[in-house]
Design goal:
Length: about 375
């Protein structure tokens, strides 16, 4: 007797593209697709929403956004009727702009919709929007069968808007913990080189740390990045962009991650999760939801945002207090295990299978999937 077919899940979201700077949204969506494909719980249909020239400005950006939306809606129009469930994954801006259109098509085809908002800026986007756009977002969240948000703050903020649950940023925990140094000397910064990511503060901070401390910087440069100042810095070394598959190796070669971001949309950055899973303490800014991720004095140290002196003090403290460093390494590994992708993937699949109204069958079978790239 043959087993019933697996439920069909349409995943809509952005995947990394060669030649384009990669952000946390693309990495998280790519991981999600890989995890679903590995589990075999669903038959997958993947719609890639990544736009070319993601970091363009003005009319080029508007034209790119419009083309991407039309392509996504066309794919949904043609294929939604074959799906049991649609899961829309996007940044706050993407949820605001495309969410109402996707919700309308799902309603038209009578397909349940799950909305996953990446990052920590959905509340900021909502508060800055016009009354009509706020009403549209409230309608999207209210009509969705499930709304997945990264942080406790966002879950509390939108608790009355629909079926809200927390789905934090996760990564696959390493099977073996890298060997750790007994002293903290080698600091690393990994991020896009936007000013609001705090790399200038990290550069100033390392100048104030003991001479034996080093700072390695990895990340793609953007149009506003001052590469000349970065490459000529006397105490830091810039290594260029870092492919995601090499992040864990680079983290394992260092003693602590420096992440002084004050980016307004910061949620739960993937590189911070990966550092914790490698047993690296994280020195970060006390900003937005970062304190939810990095527990001060337990798995890292927090400093005020935009404060290079305080950042340097935290780095220096970790470099001279070996007992504290050892304690934070243990705490980092424990915190990292709480954010293991396997744990949260199983929870997510259970939620989605409940929505499909089916018991999970055929676990472990290879997933068949199609891809559309606008």
């Amino acid at each position: 007797m043959s087993s019933p077919p697996r439920p069909r899940l349409m995943l809509i979201g952005p995947r990394p593209r060669p030649g384009e700077p990669i952000g946390g949204t693309q990495v998280s969506f790519a991981e999600l697709c890989e995890n679903f494909a590995a589990s075999g719980a669903f038959e997958l249909d993947i719609v890639d929403t990544t736009r070319p020239n993601t970091y363009s400005r003005g009319w080029r950006r508007r034209l790119s956004d419009a083309r991407g939306l039309v392509s996504t809606l066309w794919a949904l129009q043609r294929r939604a009727r074959h799906a049991d469930l649609v899961m829309f994954n996007a940044s706050a801006g993407g949820v605001m702009a495309a969410g109402p259109w996707i919700a309308r098509l799902c309603k038209h085809f009578e397909r349940p919709l799950v909305v996953r908002a990446f990052g920590g800026a959905l509340d900021l986007a909502f508060d800055a929007a016009s009354d009509s756009k706020r009403a549209a977002l409230a309608s999207v969240l209210g009509s969705a069968r499930l709304v997945l948000l990264q942080t406790d703050h966002l879950c509390a903020r939108f608790a009355g808007f629909g079926a809200v649950r927390k789905l934090p940023t996760t990564r696959r925990a390493p099977t073996r913990m890298p060997a750790r140094s007994q002293r903290c000397r080698r600091f690393v910064f990994i991020s896009q080189l936007r000013p609001e990511k705090g790399f200038a503060e990290a550069l100033r901070a390392i100048e104030l740390c003991p001479r034996e401390c080093t700072l390695d910087i990895y990340g793609p440069s953007l149009p506003q990045t001052d590469l000349l100042a970065l490459r000529s810095h006397p105490r830091a070394v810039y290594h260029g962009a870092l492919p995601h598959e090499h992040v864990s190796r680079v983290l394992a070669e260092h003693d602590a991650l420096v992440f002084p971001s004050y980016h307004e949309g910061e949620g739960m950055p993937g590189v911070v999760v990966e550092a914790l899973q490698c047993g690296l303490p994280v020195i970060a800014a006390r900003w937005r939801a970062i304190a939810e991720l990095v527990h001060d004095e337990q798995c890292g140290l927090l400093a005020p945002p935009k404060d290079a002196l305080a950042l340097a003090a935290a780095m220096t403290r970790l470099s001279i207090d070996d007992a504290l460093y050892a304690e934070l390494c243990v705490g980092a590994a424990e915190r990292g295990r709480e954010l293991d992708a396997g744990l949260w993937q199983r929870r997510l699949e259970s939620w989605l299978l409940d929505l499909c109204g089916r018991a999970r069958r055929g676990a472990g079978a290879a997933a068949n999937y199609r891809e559309v790239s606008p």
